[in-house]
Batch of 2 targets.
Target 1
Amino acid sequence: MAADEPSSAEQQAVAAAALTMATTELEYRVQLLNSMVGTCHERCVARPYKEGTLSVGENSCLDRCCAKYWQVVAIVGQLLGAQNK
Amino acid sequence: MSSADEERVASSASASTSESGVQNPSAAATSPTKKKKEWHPITMPTQQELAAQEFMNNCLVKSAISGAMGGLAGFAFGLFSASMENAHGGLDTVPELGPEKTTRVILREMFQNMKTKSVSYAKGFALMGALYSFNECVIEKWRAKHDKANPALAGCVTGAMMAHSAGPTAMCWGCASFAAFSTAIEYWMES
């Protein structure tokens, strides 16, 4: 009985920490998605909007934009991780 | 006048809260000429829609569709042109010597001429349409931009390709003329 209580408190603390980390991670991911969508839409889709569907050129521009954005995120993340060490 | 305005305000207020696509009968009664705009909710595209868009974005598919439509247009144009040619007789044509042809023979000749001409025009238009569409798709994919330079570039390449057997000067002329034509068509389609 005495051994159960601190372990349950530990478990609770660990669970709370994991929840906070997961919440922060989710928030970062949502921010990443929003900024990627905003940047690539601003760069690739020309204004004024002449039609309601994406043309072939805009489609390929969005493909390239998202791929490059993702690469930049990966590289910068790696550099940050290396710097923190 | 004020009662009609009140009815219009009431109908628009109820339309904003009701389901989309439900027409208000009082609005139709008061203003039959005005068509109420139906607002649809914004939805994310489904997998099927995305797959259909991806299918249409393929350059070969676009070129095949344009080639088919060009073939149809060429067929119609060939029929028209052959019928204009078949209307012989008059002061310009040289009279044919020999026994007079029966109606049946003349009709068969006309039909043959129509068939030949329409097939040849259909082939030419189909090739032109398919080639132009393929070039425009490839150029637009490579540039990753949707602007007015794409039809001009694609027209130039198509015109040069179609005149390749006539030498470099003809290729330059073909490029310039087809680029101008396709730019003009693009401006006309936009308006």
Target 2
Amino acid sequence: MAMAIRVCLLLLVFLSSAIVSFSLYEDQVGLMDWHQRYIGKVKHAVFHTQKTGRKRVIVSTEENVVASLDLRHGEIFWRHVLGTKDAIDGVDIALGKYVITLSSQGSMLRAWNLPDGQMVWETSLHSAQSSKSLLSVPINLKADKDYPILVFGGGYLHAVSAIDGEVLWKKDFTAEGFEVQRVLQPPESSVIYVLGFLHSSEAVVYQIDSKTGEVVAQKSMVFPGGFSGEISSVSSDKVVVLDSTRSILVTIGFLDGDISFHKTPISDLVEDSGNAEILSPLLSDMLAVKVSKRTMFVRVGGEGKLEVVDSLSDETAMSDSLPVADDQVAFASVHHEGSKIHLMVKLVDDLDTVLLRESIQMDQHRGRVHKVFINNYIKTDRSNGFRALIVMEDHSLLLLQQGAIVWSREEGLASVTDVTTAELPVEKDGVSVAKVEHTLVDWLKGHVLKLKGSLLLASPEDVAAIQEMRMQSSGRSKLTRDHNGFRKLFIALTRAGKLFALHTGDGRIVWSMLLNSPSKSEACERPSGISLYQWQVPHHHAMDENPSVLVVGRCGSDSSAPGVLSLVDVYTGKEISSSDIGHSVVQVMPLPFTDSTEQRLHLIADTEGHVHLYPKTSEALSIFQREFQNVYWYTVEGDDGIIRGHAMKSSCAGETADEYCFTTRELWTVVFPSESEKIISTLTRKPNEVVHTQAKVSTDQDVLYKYVSRNLLFVATVSPKGAGEIGSVTPEESALVVYLIDTITGRILHRLSHQGCQGPVHAVFSENWVVYHYFNLRAHKYEVTVVEIYDQSRAENKNVWKLVLGKHNLTAPISSYSRPEMFTKSQSYFFAQSVKTIAVTSTAKGITSKQLLIGTIGDQILALDKRFVDPRRTLNPSQAEKEEGIIPLTDSLPIIPQSYITHSLKVEGLRGIVTAPAKLESTTHVFAYGVDLFYTRLAPSKTYDSLTDDFSYALLLITIVALVAAIYITWVISEKRELSEKWR
Amino acid sequence: MDKGKAVMGTGRRWAVDFSDQSTVPSSRDILDPPGFSRASPEQDDSATSRQKKDAEANWKLQKAWEVAQSPFKNLMMMGFMMWMAGNTVHLFSIGITFSALWQPLSALQSVGKIFEPFKDNKVELLMPKLVFLALNLGGLALGIWKLNTLGLLPTHASDWVSSLPPPQEVEHSGGGFAFH
């Protein structure tokens, strides 16, 4: 047996050493992988429908994406993902052909060509301090054949040429501490009015010549109450602002440079006064104010007099006003009623005139409407038609037109926060495979086509047919489990608190579910999803139960806010149960025990140092009490540089009557010196990782025993000075120290320090090794270090006879208290790329060799064999070592272009990579998420346990038939010859 | 003469008949030459048969020894082939090694059959058989040695622990950074 395994392994090693990179052919793209492009939750939208031709909408999103969408189908014409720190503050269209974006707190101004999205110019604006930023693209302003764009940010007001991005002039406001609130431009005037506040209590109006930037006039007036900062400009010479107590609306008129205040207490407008809030929509001569859960429309009269004209319920979303024909201005409002939403477009001047009233059936799981953008078009009967772009609570983007949803985009998937996998249902009886494969004739035809293709006999049409056949081959998108485990569901939790189930076959959404759908109780207004766990994975017994996932959420952003647990059935996407658990959620620990229905036990720790057991059943309690002494808990306090270990103490029956609550006692602490070390990264092994063997055999038949433990914590610390950006410190000042800490006893098993190195540290921990990536300041290069951990105390098990007879303790359960002796091997290499995230492939039995999946700065994923990060690599490996697949040591890790598993695609804004094993040992699922989603199947040692998809069964069949025929014919011939021989 | 005539009749000129087996001189036309005794070879029947059997037994023994020694040649050839195959595991070396193992085994199995033709009361087959066995065992040993040099024998500790799963852990822990 062992011999057979060795032979197999040796053959495997041969195979794998023969092929270093795993590339695919052009026609294999899209067979196993899919890629979905998203943009994120839309912040601003600008329609561009004036010209004939393609109608489009320019959007900027919370994922820092600026994109141009097709208004007809919702497809992306072009898209640019700006960096994570390059948040977009404003977007507009200038000159009718450029998309202008302002980002990075008003310090980056870019122009993109509207049709194709190419960057036309980019201007970096001087910025002295962080402040709110403002982008204003005046329509009629012209200065010497140039069209200035006015930008306020970082204390400066800039006028930038729309044509080439040159700064025409700039005005420094940093000295005064002046915050620009509005830039207003009276029509047919070259003077612009810049209104702002000085120290939130003084209103200042500058009149600036738009050609030169010179201040023509300046007026200021102190308002004794102070302003709260929220402002709504209602006309070209008036703005309305709230005072600091949020109870008085102040109308500021600055006609001809004279400032006048007009105060109106909220209580004059409505009876139930409370804290008011000015809503963002820009309406002419009117403003929207939210007071105690009602939205009021307040008209601003000629002398700054305010009057309430209408009021709406709280859950109404409004658009900015839009000029329609005949100098009229309209705006849209959307509100919910049951499962329907009502879209209304009204005239601002006359709220009783409803231009459009539509009601549309809306999916419950999209939540409330968050934003509305409207656009009008002229219908064939010369009347006004309206289309509305709405952003829902789940971040999805929909276009409504003529009472229907024209298209929708699931933009929630651009902000995936946690991912887990789930199985599909088992195939029911009666659905046979033959039905999927159509008929035998079709099957044969297909294979003959494939054969033609492999023999290079196929015509272009045939090639196309083959490609199409491959794409929809053998029910890859069926909703049942398959034999190889290739079909699975990826359950993704998004920032909006929505769960999506994605099919691995084609990436479609099987179901989606908003955790806080409007029907939920009032107790928890807005729970946010934190993380996702596999709650129930039935396999051996309890097969009739559906698997489910646990979503841990929290009512509010504060860490002491009460948590919410929600169980979701994976097959149906329905919420089984949802409960407010009445305590906060600090950490969730899935335990390695399941009850009789295969529900996994979970411990949830709260802020008071208590842990709570779930599920709350007596069976779970009895299981937990059996293992009570062996369950530990540790916390990492990053700010203080302390790691604490806790053990279970007793039931907290004394304080509460909850028998599922337990108190803990502190066992150990590891305190890092705060003046020299700051924790920047911690990592443990994935709890569900399967390790095939504990032994590692070296070339000379020697055995090393891996130190495989789930209770190991990898900690990386840097000097506090070096915690910032790369290059902000000198090599002498910065050091990177990594630790391996046993989380049961708090024992530091290994410590390794890298002088002159700096974070960020990206690490991956699997089996008995850690690979981490950091920056070496001395060499000015990124480095990757591998640390492998071996158990010294088991190394004595070398007597063959004892092993043959099984007289060893290698498989006996071990305790962390048995003081393991361990040693490590490590090696470092240069790596040419900056890294966003690292993951490792995982397979069902852990036999297949591993690959590191490195998410590079270019948003691609590089598959790097673990053999490249092997501490046994030497400069001149011996023949035997070479045979084993040890690669000669080089100072840097190779980046082979063919081993990008994302091939030509980019996973924009890459944030994480998740791997999950398929049933077939050779294969692993890889799911990468960021703004985009990408999925592929990988076989790190090639598919040694199955035939490839393009295996020609027809060729095999034909060969067999031909052989049988040949045998028969030769038999007949030989019979005949024998007979004639006998007759002679 | 009439015989000759008859022959003549069928077209033959002449013939000499060597198959005259008669032992009685009177029946022939020509006298035997002096000193020629017709009956000399078959004088003593029993004596001749014994002699014959002895010769056969000798011959059988000789053959048996030859068979017994035949694996030696095989052994030499195998040795050469193994040397040629080298010490790395690939198809050729594995094929050679397995044939080197298989041949002696099959030979050992059919020892009785191989020596059956030489079975005789008078022939002492034990020694050839033993030699045959010894040589084949030698061949087997060579095969096993080759197997070992290829590293395919489970003689190291590594061969017995390579599929041992990692031990279970008694304690379990979890935790990390607090959610924020």
